[in-house]
Specification:
Elements lengths: L9 E2 L9 E2 L9 E6 L7 E6 L5 E6 L8 E6 L6 E2 L7 E6 L5 E6 L6 H13 L5 E2 L8 E6 L6 E2 L7 E6 L5 E6 L6 E6 L6 E2 L7 E6 L5 E6 L8 E6 L5 E3 L6 E8 L5 E8 L10 E9 L4 E8 L7 E6 L5 E6 L8 E7 L5
Antiparallel strand pairs: 1-10, 2-3, 3-27, 4-5, 5-6, 6-7, 8-9, 9-11, 11-12, 13-14, 14-15, 15-16, 17-18, 18-19, 19-20, 21-22, 22-23, 23-24, 25-26, 26-27
Length: about 350
């Protein structure tokens, strides 16, 4: 979670759309059916999440003429985007509340020098800067919730540094998020109204992109604690007592893990970095998982996508029958959101 919720510089993910279904490659057809593009007309879009009823999505996209992501909602079956963020500053990591009535997201719109920040970004773009994607830990980023139409915004965090990458527990009582309030990016949990904040991880390096397990007893996340930028997948119990590494391959970057609602597997994006980031291509993988109160175990791993373009930030619909992800497999090479029928769990 992080526009595109990522610490490491990636090959630039930018975007467009046709909306027509495409035939999956033979290898992908075992897992994905009826692939279709669901965003268009933005210079760049991604990191989408389903509403609890599966009928709409929330995501981040670059409005035409503006240098930072803003947050949009739209029906899943038609391109009718509505901006629900303020239209200023960096935004990221939007997520529906379990009752479907509110949206959580992070925003830097309170930056006191926002005009300067925007001008710098425009100047860099005009000069061809930032050719590869890189996420900034904006120190003005805070967490907010809003109504589905963007009204009734309420600020949940107010601390020095970056507060972002938030998601709700399934019972709606808690939010897990990433914060730099103690000096480096760690995981925190708070009540859904922003109260009772407690630190969940406290290890040197970056911990981010957290999501609760379907029973809310564990949190999966990404971390580069072993080697800077070489993200690996972890799970930690919500009491912070048990922290388990699910991947441990420092020649591959593994990030953006997400649970299937069945609780039987997780999905994520990984790429071979043994020869460095140039030429590394991100594909989607799944891992069977099992856990109890004190143990979390990973099992068989399968590769889901084989496309020559990047596939990242996969999530599942609440019924587990669809998968949405961000990809630049578009005709013009720009990154957009795609949805496909998910075939794996049914087999």
């Amino acid at each position: 979670m992080s526009v595109l919720r990522f610490l490491v510089a990636l090959p630039c993910l930018v975007l467009c759309s046709s909306g027509a279904a495409e035939e999956p490659a033979a290898d992908e057809a075992k897992f994905l059916g009826n692939i279709r593009q669901v965003t268009k007309a933005f210079p760049r879009a991604g990191e989408g999440y389903f509403s609890p009823d599966g009928k709409s999505i929330v995501y981040q996209a670059y409005p035409l003429g503006y240098p930072f992501y803003q947050i949009f909602t739209q029906p899943l079956d038609k391109f009718e985007p509505r901006m629900i963020s303020t239209g200023r500053g960096r935004t990221t990591c939007a997520y529906f509340s379990p009752d479907g009535q509110r949206i959580l997201f992070a925003s830097g719109h309170t930056d006191p020098d926002i005009a300067v920040t925007e001008k710098k970004a425009r100047d860099e773009a005009a000069q061809g800067g930032r050719r590869r994607y890189q996420w900034d830990f904006d120190p003005h980023m805070e967490l907010y919730v809003v109504n589905l139409d963007g009204t009734g915004m309420s600020r949940l965090t107010d601390s020095p540094g970056y507060d972002a990458e938030g998601s709700f527990s399934h019972d709606g009582q808690s939010i897990v998020f990433t914060s730099t309030r103690d000096g480096d990016p760690d995981l925190y949990v708070m009540d859904a109204d922003g109260s009772h904040v407690r630190q969940l991880t406290n290890v040197d390096g970056y911990d981010g992109g957290p999501f609760f397990s379907p029973d809310d007893k564990w949190v999966i996340f990404r971390s580069d604690r072993r080697e800077k930028d070489m993200l690996q997948l972890h799970a930690i119990s919500v009491d912070g007592k048990h922290d388990v590494a699910l991947t441990d391959n420092l020649s591959q970057v593994n990030w953006c893990p997400y649970f299937h609602p069945s609780g039987k597997s997780i999905i994520w994006s990984g790429a071979d970095y043994s020869r460095g980031p140039m030429g590394a291509n991100f594909d989607l993988f799944t891992m069977d998982v099992d856990w109890n109160d004190t143990e979390f175990k990973g099992g068989d791993v399968q590769r889901i996508t084989t496309h020559p373009k990047a596939d990242v930030l996969p999530v599942f619909s609440p019924d587990g029958q669809q998968m949405m992800w961000t990809s630049n497999r578009t005709e013009d090479g720009t990154s957009q959101l795609y949805v496909a029928d998910w075939l794996r769990e049914a087999k």
